[in-house]
Amino acid sequence: MLHQNPVVSDVLATAVSGGTALTVLRLFEETAKRGVFDQKLNRKLVHVSFGLVFMLCWPLFSSGHRGALLAALIPGVNIIRMLLLGSGIWKDEATVKSMTRFGDRRFVTRVIWYPHCIDDRGESGLIGLHRLYLNNCSTDL
């Protein structure tokens, strides 16, 4: 726990998790803009690192419903952001370039739904989600 009060602790955990996730995403947007990595590798690093950040920040939250809901805000906000980017409502070419193979913004809306498919192996929660991210990321490498 980050604080003695569980409500304050969950709010602080949300701020830390959100800030860390945003920092990682901004870092890879910059690397895509500057061409530091190959576009394919950059995209894979975005997927793997965002999943890892989410998994590593999960223990900061309390085990109750409030902790789970606040933890779900982090990927939830990112999903809404990707929907806005993919639909063209929000323009951010660096993000589109860092997340897509060919720079097509419409691909962003398709890619956010793939990790949310039901897994037939019965894996649950974070482990199943991260395994899906890793499988997606390792296919092109």
Outline the fold blueprint:
Layout: H1 6-34, H2 39-57, H3 65-87, H4 93-99, H5 106-111, H6 125-138
Helix pairs in contact: 1-2, 1-3, 1-4, 2-6
What does this structure look like?
It is a single chain. The chain has one domain (6-138). It has helices at residues 6-34, 39-57, 65-87, 93-99, 106-111, 125-138. The chain is mostly helical and 141 residues long.
In short:
InterPro entries: Phytol/farnesol_kinase. The chain is mainly α and 141 residues long.
Question: How much strand content do the residues show?
Answer: under 5%
What's the Cα radius of gyration? 16 Å
Write down the secondary-structure element order. HHHHHH
Overall pLDDT metric: 77
Number of helices: 6
Helix fraction by DSSP (H/I, runs of at least 4): 55-70%
Largest sheet: none
Distance between the termini: 38 Å
Number of strands: 0
How many structural domains in the coordinates? 1
Estimate the global geometry from the Cα principal axes.
Answer: elongated
Class from helix and strand fractions:
mainly alpha
Q: Any low-confidence stretches, pLDDT <50, length ≥5?
A: 116-123
Keywords, please?
single chain; 141 residues; mainly alpha
